[in-house]
Amino acid sequence: MEFKLPDSLASAPLGVILKSFPIPAKVAGRLTATNSIIKQGQLLRIKLFPSESPGFPGDWVNLNILYEDDFTLVVNKPAGVEVHPSTQGQRGTLAHAVAAYYEASGQKCRVRHIHRLDKETTGPVLYAKNELAHYEFDKAMREKTIERIYMAVAEGAFEQRKGKIDKPIGQDRHHSTRRRVSETGDPAVTLYEVVEYFAGHTLVRLRLETGRTHQIRVHLSSIHHPLAGDGMYGGTRRYIHRQALHGERLIWVHPWTGERMEVRAPLPEDMSKLLDDLRNADSE
Questions:
Q1: Is the domain defined by 148-247+273-283 classed in CATH 3.30.2350.10?
Q2: Helices 25-33 and 131-142 sit at what angle, rounded to 10 degrees?
Q3: Of 162, 175, 182, 237, which is most buried by a Cβ count within 10 Å?
Q4: Which CATH number fits domain 50-142: 3.40.50.300, 3.30.2350.10, 2.60.120.510, 3.90.79.10?
Q5: What confidence score (pLDDT) does residue 282 get?
Q6: How far is Cα 50 from Cα 57, in angstroms, rounded to an integer?
Q7: Contact by Cβ (8 Å): 79, 268
């Protein structure tokens, strides 16, 4: 990236100049050390996009890309695909698909996912295309300024139309992949709002204040409203054969412009069919 400096900064030290750009000191220091920032008179050249290898071998599939620019990629993850390998040598994850997309589109970017979704959960996954974006997104995750909003079909009828589930979550010592509410677990907060009632089920919209593994699944099960299809946490599979959980919206701040960004992911076919089946059952 090339910038023409105003006269007021033309003779200023590089450190002073960089403070006028949205580049964190840690990233600026690394760019300076690798000669990726060069000042020539009133021109400042910043190499924010060095050539990088993806870090994963590519597995080509058609990606549903919800948003993309020089800093950001947002992919709509389908059910049945893991975001990142969970075992050594595993292939076929979203990381491998993104690696193939970068290679096919001539983008020399490392695959950097910012958050995860469960294997059977659908919805947007955010990727950073360079170190600056990665730094800013990680910071935003820690400061809870990246919003993730979900739609879910839970069993039973919620008594309150809005509520907050504030229960710590820890690992189940009897099951390596299962989580449970535990006093010694990590803090976890989920907000919910009822969207639609059915006979025996409720469509709810959920917002995460924390991002614990299986958080929504554990929290809803803990209040006796497991997700439809979620056999691990008490849901039945009469209407759907995976947990009925979908990332509806992702909201973040652009790492360079500071603009508020938002993407929406349409309901996948199996959840749309689930809602149709429940509505039809109500009308019978």
A1: yes
A2: 160
A3: 182
A4: 3.30.2350.10
A5: 67
A6: 19
A7: yes
Cα radius of gyration (the chain) = 22
d(CA 42, CA 259): 27
Q: Which of 118, 138, 230, 277 is catalytic?
A: 118
Q: What is d(CA 224, CA 16) in angstroms, rounded to the nearest whole number? A: 57
DSSP state of 266: P
The DSSP string of 120-186 is: T-BEEEEEESSHHHHHHHHHHHHTT-SEEEEEEEEES--SSSEEEEE--EEE-TT-TT-EEE-TTSB
- What is the Cα 80 distance to its own chain's centre? 16
Query: Tokens 């170190």 belong to which residue?
Result: 131
Type and span of the H or E element at 75: strand 72-77
What's the 3-state SS for 31-42? HHHCCCEEEECC
What tens digit of pLDDT does each residue of 213-244 get?
Answer: 999 999 999 999 999 999 999 999 988 999 99
Do strands 201-208 and 189-197 pair parallel, antiparallel, or not at all (unpaired)? antiparallel
Output phi, psi for 263, to 5 deg. -125, 150
Half-sphere exposure of 46 (CA within 13 A, CB side): 20
Interatomic CA distance for residues 134 and 71, integer angstroms? 9
Burial 12-43 (b: 16+ CB within 10 A, else e): eeeeebbeeeebeeebbeebeeeebbebeeee
Q: What is the pLDDT of residues 84-132, one digit of tens each?
A: 998 888 999 999 999 999 999 999 999 999 999 999 999 999 999 999 9
Q: Which of 56, 110, 61 is nearest to 84 (CA)?
A: 56
Virtual torsion, Cα 89, 244, 177, 57, nearest 10 deg: 10
